[in-house]
Write a structure and sequence with these properties.
18 helices, eight-stranded parallel β-barrel, M1 Pyruvate Kinase, Domain 3, seven-stranded mixed sheet, single chain, 3 domains, 42% helix
Length: 494
């Protein structure tokens, strides 16, 4: 086994012996990972075998080995996500040559070395369609309700560079969605290229319902108490001056003392003090400077609570009839376990879709989904086009803002290892979208998004301008980076 205890330079022969042993150890661990997925090495696709090898190699602290390889001019192993075994084989073959030995493994061909990249390109095209000529990453745009009645707005988005149109099935109805789809398809014909349609089923989103405050327009501050009620009207007293209904009443009874609650993407955080009958008292621990106003229809995240909810509601199952008819891919909200993939497949099997298979995008919103992402990918197993959405808003509320930046990187690495296209979502260029003027921070965030295969924009009054700016930024970043790998084009600023 390799870990922090690795000695540094002891000569090529010793390094070669350790690398051969390391490769064998990775292979054994990877087979065990595939077995946990219910697959043998022979049954797994090349992409799943590489994912298993990546999970195996990342069980080790590679930092000492990276430095030892780096100063010798070998691969540092820092960009092996899509090619774990080929990278190890290339290193072993080169060390063998310098050690004057016949390599125990053949050096990979160029085709074998870059096979994971090729598989990712193919999977991305299968999910989103052919990319534009000027950039690799697609641009997904959330359609407002007016997209059903304003075909010129949809056409303007298409002309600005929209590649995927997102319809949020949490809003509007089937008649409105069909009108949106008709306008999107018409815009695609005018611009002469495909625009994929992504329909996002709502899932069991937990939100505030009716709210009440004994203090008029006052805001919740740290130390205040908030009463959450299940079936009753919200009510206030001396214990809690603020109260809100919960959209899924059963959630209130599943809360326990000490459970954390985050409101409106983390604008407020509290801890459950008591749960009695159909109400819970929550003590506010964090809020925005000046306080947070309690409003209806705002999201609630419960990172410590076992929710026990199906990711498909009765409404979702009804909506899927329209989704199957109209969409190129479905956004699967609140998926968290491999069995959730089987549940969706059972529902889709009841709808006789003809032609190309419906793509599925797993929205990673919950800590359990993060932990189970490799198993989710394995359960799909290449049955249909598949992608992952990094839903950074819910992830930040579930994991905490201090973890989300680190976690979005790790999710990108796992997706690349499995040749699964990733969507970078939530608040991309939000200030630009709403006000027409971007912040410096969000421009940097959008540039980092170029490492994903698709970048999602929400809706706003400056949508066309935002698409255009993102289109140019992604094209420029393509010349600098592919995933984690610098492209090293010539610099022209000096």
């Amino acid at each position: 086994m390799m870990g922090n205890e690795l000695p540094l330079d002891t000569g090529h022969a010793d390094l070669l012996e350790r690398m051969i042993g390391f490769r064998a150890d990775v292979a054994v661990t990877a087979r065990g990972i595939l077995e946990r997925f219910g697959l043998s090495d022979g049954e797994a696709t090349p992409e799943l075998r590489n994912l298993a090898a990546y999970l195996a190699i990342r069980q080790h602290d590679l930092r000492p080995l990276q430095r030892e390889l780096m100063w010798r001019g070998y691969s540092s192993l820092g960009r092996l996500e899509s090619r774990v075994v080929p990278t190890l084989d290339a290193v072993i073959a080169n060390i063998s040559a310098l050690a004057g030995q016949v390599s125990a493994v053949p050096a990979p061909s160029e085709q074998a070395f870059f096979a994971g990249e090729a598989a990712l390109h193919q999977a991305t095209d299968a999910l989103f369609g052919i990319p534009p000529a000027n950039r690799r990453a697609r641009i997904m745009v959330t359609m407002p309700s007016t997209a059903a009645t304003d075909p010129e707005m949809v056409l303007a988005c298409a002309r600005a560079g929209m590649n995927v149109a997102r319809i949020n099935c949490a809003h509007d109805d089937a008649m409105t969605w069909r009108a949106m789809v008709a306008n999107i398809r018409a815009a695609a014909r005018v611009v002469g290229r495909e625009i994929a349609i992504f329909m996002d089923v709502a899932g069991p989103k937990i939100r505030t319902g009716a709210v009440k405050s004994s203090t008029g327009k006052a805001k919740l501050l740290p130390g205040e108490a908030l009463r959450l009620v299940a079936d009753d009207e919200p009510w206030v007293d001396e214990r809690a001056r603020f109260s809100a209904q919960v959209s899924l009443p059963e959630i209130v009874t599943r809360l326990s003392h000490g459970d954390r609650i985050r409101y409106d993407d983390g604008k407020l955080e509290g801890v459950v003090e008591t749960v009695v009958g159909g109400e819970a008292i929550v003590r506010v621990t964090h809020a925005k400077t000046g306080g947070t106003k309690l409003k209806p229809e705002k999201g609630l995240n419960l990172p410590d609570t076992e929710l026990g909810l199906s990711p498909l509601t009765a409404k979702d199952e009804g909506d899927l009839a329209t989704v199957v008819e109209c969409a190129d891919m479905i956004g699967y909200s609140f998926v968290s376990r491999a069995d959730d993939i089987d549940l969706l497949e059972e529902v889709l099997a009841r709808h006789d879709r003809q032609g190309s298979p419906l793509g599925v995008v797993a929205k990673i919103e919950l800590p359990e989904a993060v932990r189970n992402l490799p198993a989710l990918i394995a359960r799909v197993g290449g049955r249909r086009p598949f992608g992952v959405m990094i839903a950074r808003g819910d992830l930040a509320a579930e994991l905490g803002f201090d973890r989300v930046a680190e976690m979005q990187e790790e999710l990108l690495w796992i997706c690349e290892a499995a040749s699964v296209p990733a969507i970078w979502a939530t608040q991309v260029l939000e200030d630009l979208m709403k006000t027409g003027l971007p912040s410096r921070g969000e421009m940097t965030d959008a540039a980092m998004a170029a490492r994903a295969e698709c970048v999602m924009l929400n809706k706003g009054p400056a949508v066309v301008e935002t698409i255009g700016m993102l289109d140019g930024l992604l094209a420029r970043m393509d010349a600098h980076m592919f995933k984690k790998t610098p492209q090293l084009r010539a610099l022209k600023s000096w």
